[in-house]
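Standup notes
- HV: blocked on the assembly model, inputs below
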Amino acid sequence: MGVSVQREDFDPGREIEAAVAGRTDAGAVCCFVGLVRDVVPGAGASALTLEHYPGMTERQLEAIEAEARDRWPLLATRIVHRYGRLEPGDRIVLVVTASAHRQAAFESCEFLMDWLKTKAPFWKLEETPEGEHWVEARDTDEAAASRWQSSGQSSVPREIKS
Amino acid sequence: MGVSVQREDFDPGREIEAAVAGRTDAGAVCCFVGLVRDVVPGAGASALTLEHYPGMTERQLEAIEAEARDRWPLLATRIVHRYGRLEPGDRIVLVVTASAHRQAAFESCEFLMDWLKTKAPFWKLEETPEGEHWVEARDTDEAAASRWQSSGQSSVPREIKS
Amino acid sequence: MKLLYFAWLRSKTGIGQETVDPPEEVRTVADLLAWLPTRGPGFAAALANPAVVRVAVNQEYARPDHPLRRGDEVALFPPVTGG
Amino acid sequence: MKLLYFAWLRSKTGIGQETVDPPEEVRTVADLLAWLPTRGPGFAAALANPAVVRVAVNQEYARPDHPLRRGDEVALFPPVTGG
């Protein structure tokens, strides 16, 4: 329930638990965890620093969360995004969605991740053996996010399945 | 990472952790947890008993897992399915998938759940105030599973996004 | 031949597991589904609508034309409802 | 007017945050993006390709025709790469 932007790590198991604690109407929980990948394997550490825009970040995440709750019949949502210096293997982001049925949980979780990738004001500064550089945005992320805008596909939940 | 069919509960946080423990090439973990829903809210307990076909169940789950690993570039997969008597709110099933990028993790997790719902030999006997009855299969689950068979849609990974 | 019944196929036949020796004409899954109802009213009730009966031979899903052998393990069950 | 720069817009301008008093003709986001490069080579470099600069006014994404007021908080940054 809600949004956190924090330097500290989070606990996916506890977040899943909290999303459905005490309820018996949720049949489906979907949880996504994003991790720092070692972009230059074998070349030693390739840590990164996540910069963000305090204030706007929280606003954007809350708006995205409200949008997901408008589109799908969700019983719980949770977004946690870290900032600061992170090493390969570290957790960056968590999204949890809960619903009566699995399709709403899966779709809304994907939706939230696609929008986070393209709208939430975070920027990655990558450390490589050649020095630091700002990670460039990927066209494929834009494409992934844009599918939720077209009226043709998946903009409203398809027929419900459990 | 394998398949477990068991009477005991499982720990989603530990399963997510185990899927990517010690690796730095996984950027995405998707975890789905299915729970017992109270089908008759307010009417007291509506527990259920999950029957299965020992031997064939494990075989089917392993075959489905191998199929997912053929279709997507997965770094880890995990399936746990419980049997026996379960109460509303109890966890039934867990699927975890890990990949370099999020689309493969999401798609393969959905694929596994769709196939579990239609191919894994489990049957739910529901306790209601009117007595016990065997839960009927849902056409929407068949439809969900069949989308992975058509050559037109999503039978192979779409372009990769992180 | 070992037969297993699950879910309401077990309730209706009253049998979880049995060993049978079907007549020689029973050579496929379809033959078996046609023969079983002749064994009594419980079997007739359980197999009244063969379209909703799934069959696995040696723990793999099998179609009606799947051939059967003496030592096979054949399971009959309704569409699955796990997950 | 408060200006914020993030990621490589900060590196190139050398500024994280500043308060500016743009000339009266600067009435929209587009006007601001046209005016800033005239302030020096760092700004010119940062804004060389305005197509890759995103703008937020008072912490909401804003289009080029978005009007600007004296007290606004305007942020300039590249396409986001979180998640």
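- HV (later): unblocked. Residues 151-162 of chain B have pLDDT under 50 and may be disordered. Chain B touches chain C through 26 residues (CB under 8 Å).
- Next: hand off to the docking folks.
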